[in-house]
Amino acid sequence: MRAVVYRGPNDLRLETVPVPRIGRHELLVRVAVCGVCPTDIKKIHHGTVPPPRIFGHETAGTIVKVGPSPSPFKPGDRVALHHHVPCLDCHFCRHHAYAQCATYKRTGITAGFEPAGGGYAEYVRVMPFVLPGVVKIPAGNTFEEGALLEPVNTVLKAVRRLALLPGDIVLVAGQGPIGLMFTRLLQLAGMNVVATDLLDPRLKLAKKFGARWTLNVQSPKSEAQSPAAPAASSDPMPPEVVGGIFVPQTSKSAVSRVSQPAGRRPNGPARPTLPTTSESMASDPESILRRLTRQRGLDAAIIAVPSDDAVRQAQGWLRGGGQLMLFAHTKRGAAAPLDLAAVCVDEKDLLGSYSSDFTLQKEVARLVFRRQLDVRPLITHRFPLAETAAAVELAAHPTTDSLKILVTQPPG
Ligand SMILES: [Zn+2]
Ligand SMILES: [Zn+2]
């Protein structure tokens, strides 16, 4: 079969490798779609793991073979795969720290070599310990939606780590695919989201995804450009966002009309009356945020871009006892001086969240397949398997119009 093999930093090659052999309790899946994920890009660019490997872990496809043992699955089933499943039994799992569990850290899906997801290949082998994470895709949904369960799961897990009350005001810094998922899931949970980005098309989408306000933040000159924080485009901006203007989200947005699932509608106190006029943010975002939050400061801020300045800024904008969530700071060794008294004295919690929580998978599948979180508008580019390297390159250097990038394969 064809597979894209990682042979070293920035070296992805289309090769012919054997179709994986499966054993008892295992599945062989023909890959239809695999999402390009920033964590794989990091490994490919920085060579943080030894080659050879076949990456790609946001995978959906069709089961073509089931190992010789009783199984709830059969050939022909359309499935979304989940490459990390915890043991639910160890010290870490008892503390709900699934991403630190040794079983969880093993990758249970492979197309050959050291297991690394395998989604950039025609077929993958699904090992028994990740079978609990396999989800059947309903007839009315696409493989593409199935492939996005994994990133949505990581976002829902992070949202669940926050201590929020309905009506709280939460900043989501960065409106790439992950930031937009945060915006929507927080809105569904009854939060008022302030969405920031450098690209206006993303901010427009953020409003459709439920942001109450959007803000184009200018890139600080000192900030190195990073994959998820591309420079502001030179495209002409619509007048209402030039210079960074707060645009209030009206209640008539498409997303607001989407019905919410029973039991998830916020039952808290009525939302506070918030300023509704456009505000210039270019000069003094802090004073605007103070006014929006009635001088209190933000209840939480989610940093979905690997920008240290965004972290420092957001920490300053939090209220006492607020929460700062790091979601994109996956590169080790960076020194990012923070005001630690803000953590100690002001009780501003510093949190991180990484990877998925398998126990949320049913809920994630409901949100995506019922399209309460409609992931389809997030998908902007599709590449054939042979062009996986180009897909990774585009994902690493997003353009004004690129969001989620997929590697797709025709049914064989
Ligand atoms: Zn991923
Ligand atoms: Zn465990």
Topology (elements, then pairings):
Layout: E1 2-8, E2 11-16, E3 27-35, H1 38-46, E4 58-66, E5 78-80, H2 91-94, H3 102-105, E6 109-110, E7 123-126, E8 135-136, H4 143-147, H5 149-160, E9 169-173, H6 177-188, E10 192-197, H7 200-208, E11 213-216, E12 245-248, H8 254-257, E13 279-280, H9 285-292, E14 298-303, H10 308-317, E15 318-326, H11 340-344, E16 349-352, H12 361-369, E17 379-384, H13 388-396, E18 404-408
Parallel strand pairs: 9-10, 9-14, 10-11, 14-15, 15-16, 17-18
Antiparallel strand pairs: 1-2, 3-4, 3-7, 3-18, 4-5, 5-8, 6-7, 11-12, 12-13
The structure holds zinc ion (2 copies).
One zinc ion is lined by residues 86-87, 89-90, 92-93, 101, 103.
Description:
With 412 residues, the protein is of the alpha/beta class. Helix content is 24%, strand content 23%. It has helices at residues 38-46, 91-94, 102-105, 143-147, 149-160, 177-188, 200-208, 254-257, 285-292, 308-317, 340-344, 361-369, 388-396; strands spanning 2-8, 11-16, 27-35, 58-66, 78-80, 109-110, 123-126, 135-136, 169-173, 192-197, 213-216, 245-248, 279-280, 298-303, 318-326, 349-352, 379-384, 404-408. The strands form 3 sheets. Strands 3, 4, 5, 6, 7, 8, 17 and 18 form an 8-stranded mixed β-sheet that branches. Helix 5 packs across helix 12 (361-369). Bound molecules: zinc ion (2 copies). Residues 37, 39, 57-58, 150-151 line the site of one zinc ion. One zinc ion is lined by residues 37, 39, 57-58, 150-151.
Describe the structure using short key phrases:
18 strands; alpha/beta; eight-stranded mixed sheet; 412 residues; binds zinc ion; 24% helix
